Amino acid sequence: MRLVKPKKFLGQHFLKDLKVAQDIADTVDVCPGLPVLEVGPGMGVLTQFLVKKERPVKVVELDYESVAYLREEYPSLEDNIIEDDFLKMNLQRLFDGQPFVLTGNYPYNISSQIFFKMLDNKELIPCCTGMIQKEVAERIAAGPGSKTYGILSILIQAWYRVEYLFTVHEHVFNPPPKVKSAVIRMTRNETQALSCDEKLFKQVVKTTFNQRRKTLRNSIKPILGKDCPLTEDVLFNKRPEQLSVQQFIDLTNSVEEALKSHKAKIDVDNME
Question: What is the C-alpha to C-alpha distance for residues 44 and 62, in angstroms, rounded to an integer?
């Protein structure tokens, strides 16, 4: 069958190096026994190694040309080739609500969105591996104090252990991307619930990093207002990239208390 031409609007860069493909496929071995969902299989360079692992494998592909190619080249996968947009799928329906490993040579233009979807389905996805832009991989794996540490780092590390496994160079793709790539693995940690309001936690993280060069005293103002006594604490002298996940959890609890106190004061004033 005729090969599939990579489509720029889908962020497709087809991996050519079979050794790299084998190494990526082997990253799922840390979670043996679980079924595997591959996102964006393209022409199946990774798929060919996943199907040998003696566990259920499904692939989801948006590109109709790639779907046709996969159906011809991998007839044994016929019922497990899903033509759909991963970002819009109900993941509960994939393996009858059972947990699975997420993997793939992810489309570069939606890699962050894929990981936000992973977080929304973290109880279903105990392990996620795959290849993304090197810059994004470094951001996810970064620790406090790093210039690349940010929103994605904290939201993922709150729930997953992150391993930066290896770097992949441009020449092993068709077409070669303009950036280097990297393979990472994220495995669920022991956290079952954050010891804070999780919705407010996300808001605090996103709000403070939207002005990452400013101290917390200034960047938290959209949530706390201008003259909140809480911001006199020395913690607010720091910038957001200096805080660990646990410090953000503690900060969220302090912010919640301050908001409750402020609301209670307004309620009292309105009664008088």
Answer: 14
| Sheet containing strand 57-61, strands side by side | 81-83, 57-61, 36-39, 101-103, 127-133, 181-188, 160-168
Residues 6 and 103: beta-carbon distance below 8 Å: no
Which residue do the tokens 């009858």 mark?
Answer: 96
Instruction: Say what the pLDDT of residue 268 is.
Output: 46
Give the H or E element holding residue 266: helix 245-271
Q: Which of 16, 62, 52 is nearest to 177 (CA)?
A: 16
Report the relative pairing of strands 14-15 and 173-174 from DSSP bridges. antiparallel
Question: What angle, rounded to 10 degrees, do the helices at 134-141 and 111-120 form?
Answer: 40
Query: 146 and 48 share a domain?
Result: yes
Residue 2 included in any domain: no
Instruction: Identify the domain containing residue 253 by its residue range.
Output: 198-271
Residue 121 pLDDT exceeds 70: yes
My answer on whether 84 and 212 are in the same domain is: no
| Contact indicator for 82, 107 with CB cutoff of 8 Å | no
Encoded amino acid at 135, one letter: E
Q: 201, 252 in Cβ contact below 8 A? A: yes
Residue 25 sits in the same domain as residue 114: yes
Task: Report whether 20 contacts 110 (CB < 8 A).
Answer: no
Q: Does 205 lie in the same domain as 123?
A: no
Is the pLDDT assigned to residue 3 strictly greater than 70? no
Per DSSP, helices labelled H in 26-158 are: 47-50, 64-73, 111-120, 134-141, 151-157
Does 152 lie in the same domain as 40?
yes
pLDDT, residue 267, reads 47
Q: E-strand spans in the chain?
A: 14-15, 36-39, 57-61, 81-83, 101-103, 127-133, 160-168, 173-174, 181-188
